[in-house]
Automatic annotation (TrEMBL):
One GO molecular-function entry: zinc ion binding
UniProt signal peptide: none
Protein's recorded name: RING-type domain-containing protein
Keywords: Metal-binding, Zinc, Zinc-finger
Organism: Zooxanthella nutricula
InterPro entries: Znf_RING, Znf_RING/FYVE/PHD
Keyword Iron: no
Domain (RING-type) ranges: 16-55
Keyword Ribonucleoprotein: no
Amino acid sequence: MDQIESTDRSPDMFKCGLCKCIAQEPRITVCCQKVWCGACLDHWLEGSETCPQCQSLAVNGDGSTGGCGEQRVKKLDQNSQGVHAMLWRVYGNMRVRCPHKGCSWIGDMLSYESHCRDCAQGLAASAS
């Protein structure tokens, strides 16, 4: 299939619907399978019990986002299973660049947070 140029739309799939950035500490609402930043979704759910995308109930009567059988929000991480484990691998392998001006680092999403925390360009900018 030489006519395929690129099918990688991973960055779009992992954009948070609230802040429009690549999701940090990603979570998925089970109702519509949308990816969100953990912090953005937590903030949203402080003021609403519904999914920001489809308005389905995202919070149980006890205020939780679910337990074993009724989980309505799933965290994507190294403990994810099934399809969510595959999504975690795609997320972790996405190539991203450092947001700090003057830094040329490019790496995978799993290394991004630790790089940003230790980036000399970022540390210099915050010291000024």
